[in-house]
Amino acid sequence: MNKPIGILLMAYGTPRSLDEVEAYYTHIRRGNKPSQALLDELIGRYKAIGGVSPLNEITDEQARRLEQTLNAKGSQYKVYIGMKHAEPFIADVVRRMADDGIAEAVGVVLAPHYSTMSVGVYTKEAQEAAKAVGLEMKCVSSWHMQDAFLDALEARLRDALERFSEDERRQLKVVFSAHSLPERILALGDPYPKQLLETSQALAERVQIRDWQFAWQSAGRTAEPWLGPDLLLVMDELAETGYHAMLSCPVGFVADHLEVLYDLDIEARQHASQKGIHFERTASLNADQRMIDALVAAIHEVEGESHFTGAR
C-alpha cells in the first residue's frame, strides 16, 4: 500500500481563550508585547463577538471535510492543520508529518489570493521545515479563480442582494474587500491586488453587478502606509454621493473571524448606520463544500505538476 500524501492546511490562527490573547498578539508582533491599551482594545473586540473567535472550530471542520473529499474516491490523504500565530505552529506540524511517515505533501493556505507577505510567508516556513526533515513539500500559490470558489461566492452574493428592497437595489454599491497590506508590496510587483480584482471582476460579471468597487480593511497599526482606500472612508464617500445601501463582500476572507465579525459586522455596520446606509454582508464560506472542492482542485493541480507517487 502506498503511503498517504500529507496535506498541510495552513491558517492564521486565533487564541482559544481570552487568556491567550496577549501571547497571540505578541507572536504577531514578532515577540514585542503590546501596550496595555492595545491589549485591552483587542480583548474588548473579542468580548464584543462573544469572547473567542470561531476560527479554530471552522478550520477543524474545513480540514475534516477536505480529508473526506480527497479520500472519497479511494485515494489516501491525511490532512494536518498548521497555524501561523497559534498552536499548532506550521513547523511543528511539518515535523509531526515526518514522524508519521509522510514523505510527500502539499501545503495550501486558507487564503485564496497570493502575497509575498501572507501566503508566501506560510509556504516559505512550511517548505523550510519540510526540507529540514526530508519531506517533499509542494505548495498551492493561489486558488482565487477556481470555479467552485467563485460558485460559492456567487451564491452568497445573490442571497445577500435579496436583503435589499427593490428601491434600494436601484442604487446599491457592492464593495469587495480584503485585508490591507503595507503599500511597499506594490514596488515588489506583488500579485495580491491584481488577484483580488480578478476575483471581484469575475463575480461582478457572474451576477451582472455594474456598480461595484474594491476597498481595503483591517489595516495594521504601523507607521508605514497601507493599501487603501479604507472601507470606512469608502462608506463616507458613498454617503456624500447619495448612496443609502451597500453590500460588503469580503472576498479575501473565507471564514468568520475577528476581521469579519468585528471589523465588518460591528464597526462597519455601526459606521454605516451613522451615515444613513443600509449595510449588509455576504455570509462567509466557512466549510462550504464548494470551497472545499476548490481546495481539492488546487491541490490536484499541484500534484499533477509534482508527479507524486503516493495516494493513488
User: How helical, in percent, are the residues?
Assistant: 40-55%
Average pLDDT: 96
Shape annotation: globular
Q: Supply the CATH class of the largest domain.
A: Alpha Beta
Main sheet specs? 4 strands, parallel
Sequence stretches where pLDDT stays below 50 over 5 or more residues? none
The count of β-strands is 8
Rounded radius of gyration (Å): 20 Å
Structural class: alpha/beta
Q: How many separate structural domains?
A: 2
**Helix and strand string, N-terminal first?**
EHHHEHEHEHHEHEHEHHEH
Biggest sheet strand order reads: 2-1-3-4
CATH architecture of the largest domain: 3-Layer(aba) Sandwich
Fold-level CATH name of the largest domain? Rossmann fold
* Measured distance between first and last alpha carbons: 9 Å
Q: Helix segment count?
A: 12
Strand fraction band? 5-15%
Kindly summarize this structure in a few lines.
The chain is of the alpha/beta class.
Overview of this protein structure:
It catalyses: Fe-coproporphyrin III + 2 H(+) = coproporphyrin III + Fe(2+). Fe(2+) binds at residues 179, 259. The chain has 312 residues and is an alpha/beta fold. It has two domains: 5-143 and 288-306, Rossmann fold, CATH 3.40.50.1400; 147-281, 3-Layer(aba) Sandwich (Rossmann fold), CATH 3.40.50.1400. The protein has twelve helices and eight strands. The chain has helices at 21-28, 36-48, 55-70, 90-99, 119-133, 147-161, 166-170, 192-207, 231-240, 258-261, 263-274, 289-306; strands at 5-11, 77-83, 104-109, 136-139, 173-179, 212-217, 245-249, 278-281. A four-stranded parallel beta sheet has the order 2-1-3-4, sandwiched between helices. Strands 6-5-7-8 form a four-stranded parallel beta sheet, with helices on both faces. α8 (192-207) links the parallel β5 and β6 (212-217). α6 (147-161) crosses α8 (192-207). The longest helix is centred in the last third of the chain and has 18 residues, at 289-306. The radius of gyration is 20 Å and the shape is globular.
